[in-house]
Design a protein that fits this description.
This protein is α/β, with parallel strands linked by helices. It contains nine helices and six strands, in the order αβααβαβαβααββαα. Bound molecules: 3-methylbut-3-enyl trihydrogen diphosphate (2 copies) and magnesium ion.
Amino acid sequence: MADQADKTSQQQDTMAARHIAIVMDGNGRWAKQRMLPRHAGHRAGVKAVRRTVEACVELGIRTLTLFAFSSENWGRPTEEVQKLMTLFVEALNKQVPELNEQGVRLTIIGDREQLPADLVRQIEASEAMTAGNERLHLVIAVAYGGRWDIVNACKGLARQVADGELAVEEIDENRLAARIQLAGPGDPDLFIRTGGDSRISNFLLWNLAYTELHFSDTLWPDFEQQELAAVVGGFQGRERRFGKTSAQVTGDHA
Ligand code: IPE
Ligand code: IPE
Ligand code: MG
């Protein structure tokens, strides 16, 4: 019976993407192609976020995790960073009431201590407003780095050990995973990166261990619903073996 239940859940894993994570890359190049400042690309990127959220609701996706600003992006020119922070405040202010009506729950992951106070206030208000929604969980990674996430989780465990609440021997993958930023929604089924580069760029290092990867040449502001639907459709054909054999996963021992 336990075997049967195990098989059923794995077969479901091969069928539908429930959680999609996207590295939204290519805004700057999109702007450059049009002889526009980089910021125009970031603005166009916000529109693509809106379209993608709609598409995910239609496709029945449960969780969408978007990489908006990495730990390393702090190294960009001050003007670009400042304008991005202002754009985040503006986008949340404008779009969250609408997202709320659509039943979208919003969570921000990343190192909030690095963010300007007005953005933190806007984030807290947005999360509170949408906390009860269940149609789609939209997770946005801001000032986020996969390595920071793991270090942050380790610090939490270390504190428990120092306080005598936990023995070193009790530290295991489950206890660490519970302290990773995506502990609630869990690991993505499908990862997409737009912009033509095939790299992770310090996104969800812990959570991508068994995620299916898809790299697209489309620049983020040009990313459309049709492409997302095609990628999600293609995912359904992939056999996720999680280290096992094909026969174990499909139950086909012929
Ligand atoms: C992604 O687009 C947005 C952020 C990292 C904030 P880029 O700004 O990296 O665009 P390209 O890669 O320069 O085209
Ligand atoms: C990844 O894009 C980060 C985000 C999309 C937020 P980058 O443009 O920062 O990645 P690299 O520098 O090309 O690796
Ligand atoms: Mg880039």
